[in-house]
Amino acid sequence: PDTNPETPEVIPEEKPEETPEEIPEETAETVETTVPETTEPETTEPETTEPATTEPEITVTLGESIAFEARVRLGTDCNYSSTLVYDACKSVGLNVPYSVNELAVTGVEVSAEELLPGDVLFFGYDENDTAPQYCGIYSGDGRFIYYSGSKSTVIETTLNDYYRSCMVTARRFA
Length: 174
Description:
Layout: H1 3-22, H2 24-59, H3 62-72, H4 81-91, H5 100-103, E1 108-109, E2 120-123, E3 134-140, E4 143-148, E5 153-158, H6 161-166, E6 167-172
Antiparallel strand pairs: 1-6, 2-3, 2-6, 3-4, 4-5
Helix pairs in contact: 3-4
């Protein structure tokens, strides 16, 4: 019976003596000090990331939004080229006329060299046609989006020499 009480007393005495010598409390304090430092930069990083994601939205122009809305309609049947322009403009909050002739005198005229995404291009059926017959939306990089009646769908194509020769005017809506 005397041996049993001595054995538990000796073991607890040895463990507490080893623990203070190792000083795990200082290590714990160091870890606690390190954790807040790690947490603070993580909080700072999302703040830095948020403005970067909002900047592209701010720099998107109205014209780029119109071009995007036209591109969304690729492969769809919109009946007329003016429907494409009307719907794309309406979806970004612009109230524009529906007919090709009325659209052709709306906004500000721009030259072929000044084209920006979202500018509306008006074409005759050939280079001698001075009245606009159909229209499309310039999408950038020498390309435009329009409704092809022969294909019954909205397509994007290159603004090549043929289309440039048939272009009656180009307008920018603000």
